[in-house]
Amino acid sequence: LFTTKTETPSSIAVDPVGRYLYWADQGQKPSIQRAFLDGTRREVIVGAEHVSEPTDLIVDAASRMVYWADAKKDGIYRIRPNGGAPELVRPDIASAAGISLVGQQMFWTDNRLEKVFRASSKPNQTSLLLSPTTVAAALKDLGDVVVFSSENQPKGSSPCQITDNLRKSPCPQLCFSSPGTQSPTCACARGSLCSECFLITNQK
């Protein structure tokens, strides 16, 4: 999707209902960015003045808020999907390798402490003062953490989905849905050309 202006991507997340792709970049100008699923309408929603070293990024399926861990700013933050001012969710977290959400609970892994923690994902004066709950300990080389739950699988529609009336994909290869429209965007894999009726491939 992108070959320019992307230096050191560290994490990527998809909002299937909102139809956006989000990613974090740890380059010389660190940022949180988003684009349509087909790679168009790319924009920076968090600039270098608010993010330093993002290590993981997720999208809350319910609120569509974007959460990320920042190793240099020692915390977990969130922001509305269309941008705005970042909000501190958890302070004093310097080694968060991965974060995950379910309901109003947030989980994260800490490489230095070798633990998995849980705390509220809704920042307020009370939650910021409470110590997080240790879920698991003595775990070496921790990476990402994922919580599997039906709450993280919201229902939605897509012009690319196969239904009883449409028994095959509307696109011969890649099909993308974009915000605000029920018309799909079709694309081809690298090295091939598409049309409505046939496929031409380029072989070396």
TrEMBL record:
Keywords: Signal. LDL-receptor class B repeats lie at residues 19-63. One of its GO terms (molecular function) is Wnt-protein binding. Gene3D superfamilies: TolB, C-terminal domain. It is a single-pass type I membrane protein. It is found in: Endomembrane system; Membrane. Its main location: membrane. InterPro entries: 6-blade_b-propeller_TolB-like (IPR011042), Cueball_EGF_LRP_Nidogen (IPR050778), EGF_LRP2 (IPR056588), LDLR_classB_rpt (IPR000033). One of its GO terms (biological process) is canonical Wnt signaling pathway. Residues 157-195 form the LRP2 EGF-like domain. It comes from the Eukaryota. One of its GO terms (cellular component) is endomembrane system. This is Low-density lipoprotein receptor-related protein (inferred by orthology to a C. elegans protein). The lineage of its organism: Eukaryota, Metazoa, Ecdysozoa, Nematoda, Chromadorea.
